[in-house]
Specification:
5-stranded mixed sheet; 3-stranded antiparallel sheet; Cytochrome_P450_Monoox; Cytochrome P450; heme binding; oxidoreductase activity, acting on paired donors, with incorporation or reduction of molecular oxygen; heme
Length: 468
Amino acid sequence: MHHSTAASHSTNQASSGVKPQRKHIPGPLWPTAARNTIRFAHQALSFVQELRERYGDLVTLPTMLGPWTLVFHPDGVRHVVQENHKNYRKGGISNHVLRLTLGNGLLTNNGDSWLQQRRLIQPIFHRKQIAAFGQLMTESTLAWIEEGNLDTSQPLDLFQQMSGLTLSIVCKALFGADMVGYKKRVFVASSMINYLEAQAFYVPGLLSLPTPQRHRLYKARNTLYTVVDELIAERRKSAAQSENDLLTMLLQARDEETGLGMSDQQVRDEVLTLMVAGHETTANALCWTLMLLAQHPDIEARLREEYISVLSGRAPQMEDLPQLKLTRIVLEESMRLYPPAWAFARQAIDEDEIGGYRIAKGAYILMFPVATHRHPDFWEQPDVFDPERFSPERAAGRHRFAYFPFGGGPRVCIGNQFALTEAQLVLATILSRYQLRLLPGANIVPEPLITLRPRGGLLMTVHPYKEL
């Protein structure tokens, strides 16, 4: 097929000692820049698929913001995020928008200061630490159900409900018992930020000009800053740093080489990053999974059998996860079809080469899990929901970067194990008790903002199972 020809072509030439003639990356002609920008803003998902089908695995897209290089092949993705990651820094529109609210946390930072932060924070997300949060995840979900959030009398906007649940889980993990008094302010501010970031993603200028949107974004951001700063100050003052929440761990983290910890501002930026980035992606993953299960009652019925045989009526615990095999692969397949982080952007620091093509210094590189996850060269029937493709037998030998919902390489999402654990425990807690159904005639459209979310929410009805 035409997809892999570029890579093999360059190796053949290189081995024969001839310096390869570096070709121009294929793509639409320059006069289409305005049209491309509008199409990307309004139909990103179908447009990106179309570009891959038409031009292959590496595409130059002229836009009003300059040329973009789109990388679809897993080899190209691996090159950018892993093999030559030092040449590619975080950049682009979404990074600009995120920096306005999250400051310089792990998600937005670059270079040596990023590396130092990563080294400090990495131990906090060790498997043992995450295991300690397992109980918190299940208990929070049970408490959330008991508060009546899964109202069975009327349709619910699941996206809103899941966002509330995942935000309360991440806040309890971050702040422990201190969270209670601040809950309302945090919820209001972070939903405001999500909404405004979503708008800004389409109109980047909104936040660089003194618009009402920017004023509202800063107001919401300042609310969060105030809450987090108060919590940091209290925690630094109190000797009670025996709390085993993430905030205490961040305050206690020390660089092995220098012995230095983080400044209050660094701690705050990391807290906000974990809070805002950490809850919305998981809420999206849960929404898409529940939607897919409602559309595939046969798989939902098999999940139900798994819960009856493994849990026999009790709430799921961390120790149950290895037995909840179907839950895990259902989630993985859901994140293949609807990856919450649907696109990743990088900027080339120096000139480079991908698959025999020249990448200019400063090139803006985009990678799309949402397209690579449905690449027909790597996935049979790519648009079909088939969790079994993640069974060990079928996953063996698959390209490591055909599936990268959490990115990859040194910058792979630091919270990936936390998010996967949380999503599995939340699903098992809810689905062992309730069945969720879509409204008849529901038309669900994925909306690619900073994360991939259901446009206008996701309305579903909730039906309790008869007692086990």
